[in-house]
Every structure is written in structure tokens, then in C-alpha cells.
Amino acid sequence: QICNQHNAEAPNLEQAFHRMAQTEPNLDHDISWFLLPSYWAKMVVALISFLCFANSYDGDFVFDDSEAIINNKDLRAETPLGDLWHHDFWGSKLSSNTSHKSYRPLTVLTFRINYFFAGGFYPVGFHVINIILHCTISVLMVDVFSILLGGLQFSNKGRRLNLAPKTSLLAALLFAVHPVHTECVAGIVGRADLLCALFFLLSFLGYCKAFRENKEGHHFSVFWVLVSVLLGAIAMLCKEQGITILGLNAVFDALVINKLNVLEFIQKLVRKDKLLENAGLLRKGLLFRITLLMSGGASILYIRWRIMGTGPPAFTEVDNPASFADSLFVRAINYNYYYSLNAWLLLCPWWLCFDWSMGCIPLIKSVSDWRIIALAALWFCLIGLICQALCSEDSHKRRILTLGLGFLIIPFLPASNLFFRVGFVVAERVIYLPSIGYCILFTYGFSLLSKQAKKKKILAVAVLGILLINVMRCALRSSQWRSEEQLFRSALSVCPLNAKVHYNVGKNLADKGNQSAAIKYYREAVRLNPKYVHAMNNLGNILKEKNELQEAEELLSLAVQIQPDFAAAWMNLGIVQNSLRRFEEAEQSYWTAIKHRKKYPDCYYNLGRLYADLNRHIDALNAWRNATVLKPEHSLAWNNMIILLDNTGNLAQAEAVGREALELIPNDHSLMFSLANVLGKSQKYKESEALFLKAIKANPNAASYHGNLAVLYHRWGNLDLAKKHYEVSLKLDPMAPGTKENYNLLRRKLEQLQKKGG
């Protein structure tokens, strides 16, 4: 749909619109840089952006990838696709009190597609898509920067002209190789930021298409404005920041299309000037377009609010300590300090960390803190840039600085704590989009320096050096994101006060079986954050395994005291109390864990073990049955039911349970072994033999499997086979209980048979 501009100023607007290249200075004239055709410029940007992050393609699932992908049931085929629209990014129901409220169904959908085509959780495909997305975004940046730095102009055939090929190439390269983007590209969870950025840019470029000239002249396309709103909605369904593109489109329209002088407009607005309609903002077309953008944005936010529910996400003090400060002064000072840290990461992205919470950045509590200097520096620079953007007599300078500040600040607003509390202190991923504004300002600053410099080539070499350093830093940082061990250890030097860093290093070591080393890092995590219940729980678990039960109990008791609804800690406390033979307390701890987590199969399993120790067989069977109902593949619970029924002489019931278990878990060799024992006692030798052999095939080095099969043959009368498997069992485990005695009995019987035969 095309709308005509009927007001008297429309011809002047179009005339100015098409003479932009002649009436405004061109940044490319002032810099010494590569001049490439558009196609080659995009190829260079794509290649370099690929080289920066290519070595992350075969990385593992790391950090948040486990929760967002591996443990996210929304990726699996059995979950209906419709559930994605009612769940948050991590697979929890949005209506749940524990939901993160991060609503990104389109990002989760791409993960699901990755999972489907890979046939499981194989990270290579996930990483490759992330790298391709970043390369695509970087290529689009060439077009975006050519508009932001050179203006918007179309040829007579309606083709957009690139009026700043050098500066747009430089800005796109700066964006492509910025090390702060590593988290988004090398971390699979960063897919949300990449997809959001992709549709964010497409929305902007779509909005620009609305002003393409056609045969009739003086037109803009309502269709492309609506397409831009739709793409903005899609961006928001990938990540919340996407909605900010609608505001940026409005800013672009006012500054570039309508040549609005913001300071002049504000002055006229304050004076209630009668000439306000000539100031640009009240032009019919602009008002109509802004109304479309605002209406679209309001509708999108309302729908998002309705889906999410009215309750905000629940964050803890360790996630964002400044937001929990009682003093407004402390909150304001620390928020501004966080802004300065984000700015520093854009300027000098050398110290990068996967997590900046939990004491990494201590709170500023007084004006005597030297870090106040960072705030002063930030606002000194911002105020200086804002003044130039508003007051400069050079309209070209005003436009570029305002656009640069707009793209720097507006996409950052959702992460600023100004409108709602966020769940982090500093997050490198949230400055993926704001870095567009940084690249604009850097490139414009470079052009100003080049204009003054006598030796422009030296300045160009310096910028080339910055690009090269950033490429190497990207390659190094993306290699650190390849595995959790490298990622977590890289953070120790950046955030040594961050308890979560030490916790993650410890957890990684514990997962690899190095529990002694893990203890050191868990203890440091608890020292840095004495209320870190997850570190206490994991440390208590390791101490429990090492039979240091007293300290384990103290840690776990403290954890549940700090967080009374911490179900895992209650269960582990019950296990320790059971080991200390304090059975009543253990039972109470298990039931408390189940109270706080209704569907807790592992806790029912441990409760069953407690009841078995107390000879409460019916209660034990009920507990294990609950575990298998909640988790049908819970092999240990099935096994314990079979063994208990076998030991109490209920062979028919034991056989029924064993067969039920094997139907659900047909390849579990331990279940085959347990059922084979029951069948052997029931004198179903042939079926028992088949199960024993199948179990041995799956696990040939289990001495007990060979030993019990030998007993079966012994009972059955197949003495030679019995002798063979006794010998294999003793070879695997010479100390196997009962096997040596049975073997000696068999040998004596064979000797007697030989004597009789002789």
C-alpha cells in the first residue's frame, strides 16, 4: 500500500531527500581506507567474521547450554510444539513462580530443529548455525552502516546507493571482530541474541525500503512499515531486546528522513511556537508512521505481557546485588558503575568473563570509593557527545552522533535495571546490539581524526592493528568457550572474587572424578559467599562420599537453614543422617525434600533404601514404586524391588516386577541379571540362562554375572559350563564372596564323578 503526501512541504522533503549526497559531507573523503565494491566488501566481512569464531565449531555444550538445551524438554519430539508458546527459554511454564520469564519461543524452536536434524545432543550443528548467523549479521551490517553513516538515497531505478563504502566497511569489520561477541557466537545459548540481531537489522532495512522512490513520487510504503513492525515482533520472540528496533526506526525517520533538529524542536515545543508544525515532527507522514510503530509496539508488548503473566521473574540478591540495596543512592551509583563497565568492555574487550555476579563486582557504598571515577568518566563522555549531537551547527555531525548514541543506548535499555530488575550484573551478550552504536561512534571519530591528521596512512595502520588484535582475541576467547574447564579457569584471573567461578571450576573437576581438587574450589566458593547453598550442597555431597559425615551434615544443615525449600540439600542431608544411623531424622529430611519437590524420584529411591534398612519392606516397595512411576527408567529402584522381593521369597512377584522393568528398560544388563537370578531360583533354567548370557554380553567383565551363571549351571547339572564360568569369575575377582567355595564344591564333585567313571 502506498500513501501520498499531500502537505505543502512534501516536495521540499523529497528534493532534500534525493540531494543528500550533495548537501552533506561524505565521511569517506576524510579517511584512508580500503575502497571495495559492495559485493567484495561483504565477502571480506563474512570471511573475517568466520575466521574469528571458526575454532568454536567443535566445542562442547558449556555453562547455560546444559539447562537451555540438554535439560530442556521442549527440544524433544514428545513435547508438543504448542508448548513452546507457553514455556520460557529454559522449558519451564511461564505461569510457574520459578520461571525466568524469558520468552524466546523462536530461539527454542531453532534449537529443536538442530536437535531433530542432528539426531540428538551433538553440539557441532548448534555451533555451526551460530557462526553462520554471526557472519550473516556482519554482512548485513555493511548495508546498515552505509545508511547510518552515509544516509539513505535511492537511484532512479529504486536501488539504494552506498554513499559511504569505506566507512561502512570499517564499521562492519569493527562489529564482526569485536571480542565481546564471543559469548553470543561460541556459547550456544547466545543464539537468542544472534537471532534477535538478525531480525532487528532486517526490520531496520525493511523500514528503509518504505522510502524507496516510485514512479509517482512523494511516497512511502505502509506495507514496508508494517513488515518492519512484524520483523520487530519476530526479533522480540527471539529475545526481549528486539522490540527496541521500533523506537530506533522512529528515531531514524525523524533524523534522516525528516531532518529533524532535535534541539530546535525542543525549544519550539517549550515556547509552544506556532511554527511547530514546520519543525518536522508534525508532518503528516511522520506522525502516521510513528503511530504505526507505537501501536505495533504497544500491541506486541501487551500480548507478551498477557502470555508471561503479571508477575515479574524472581531473582536473588546474588544475581543482582545492587537491585536489592535499600538505599536509592547505592542502587543508582552501582547501576551507573555497571554501565561504565559495559562501556569499558566495548572500548577494551580484554578482560572477559562468562559470569560477573556473586561478588565479582563489589558494591560501591560511598562516594569515597575510587571507582566513582569510572562513573564520572562515563557521564563526562556521554554528556559531551549528547551536547555535540544536539548543539552542533553541522547537521551531518548531529545526525551521526544522535544515531550512534541511539543505537548504543536504546537496545541496552531492557538490561539497564531502569524499568525492571534483571538477573545479572554485567552480561557480555546484552551488548551485542549496542555495539552497533559503538562502531558508529568509533568510525566517526576515526574520520574526524583522519581529517585533522597529516599522515592518514599511519592512522589507518593503527586501526588495522586494532582489528588484527581483535581477531586474535576473538580466536583465543572462542577457544576458551570450547570446553567448560577452559571457560571456567579463564574466569579465575578476571573475577577471582566471584564465588560462582570457583563453584563451576569445582563442579567441573568433580564431574571428572577429581573430587579432592574440587573440594578446594567449593570451599573457596563458600568462603567468598557464605550463603552459597549450591556450593555447600555439592561440598557436603563429596564429604559424604569420603565418609566425612560430621562436616557434611553441618554444611547441608546450614544450606537448608539458609534456603528451607532446597529439596536436593534436604535429600542429601537425609542420606548423611541415614549413614549416621539417625533414621528418624533421615526419614523427616526425605519427606521435607519431597514436600518441596513433589516429583522427586531419587528421593523416593533413597527413602526406600532407608525403609529397607529398617525392615519396613512394604514401605520400601511403595517408595521404590513411586520412584519408578515418576521416572520409569529408574534402574536402581527397579533392581531394589526385584532383589527385595527375591530375598523375601516372593519369587512370582519379583519375576513380574523384573519383566515389567525390562519392558521399559530392555537393554539394562543389571535388570537382566536380577531377573535371571529369580528365574533360576524358580527353576526356569533355560530362560534364566538366556538372560545371564545377554547380561554378560553387555557387561563381560562383571565377575558376579559369571559366578551366578555358574551357580545356575551347577544346579542345572551342566557341570563343565559351571566350571568354566566359575573360573572366569575368579579370574575377574579372586575375592568374589562364595564363588571360591562353590568352585571347590564343584571340583570335588567332578573328582568324585571321575573316580566313579574310572
From TrEMBL:
It is an enzyme of class 2 (transferase). One of its GO terms (cellular component) is endoplasmic reticulum. Pfam families: TMTC_DUF1736 (PF08409), TPR_16 (PF13432), TPR_19 (PF14559). Residues 311-383 form the DUF1736 domain. It is found in: Endoplasmic reticulum; Membrane. TPR repeats lie at residues 499-532, 533-566, 601-634, 703-736. One of its GO terms (biological process) is endoplasmic reticulum unfolded protein response. The chain crosses the membrane at residues 39-57, 131-151, 163-182, 188-208, 220-237, 243-266, 286-305, 372-391, 403-424, 430-449, 458-476. It is a multi-pass membrane protein. Pathway: Protein modification; protein glycosylation. GO terms for molecular function: dolichyl-phosphate-mannose-protein mannosyltransferase activity. Gene3D superfamilies: Tetratricopeptide repeat domain. It comes from the Eukaryota. Its main location: endoplasmic reticulum. Keywords: Endoplasmic reticulum, Membrane, Repeat, TPR repeat, Transferase, Transmembrane, Transmembrane helix. Belongs to the TMTC family. This is dolichyl-phosphate-mannose--protein mannosyltransferase. It comes from Anseranas semipalmata (Magpie goose). The gene is Tmtc4.
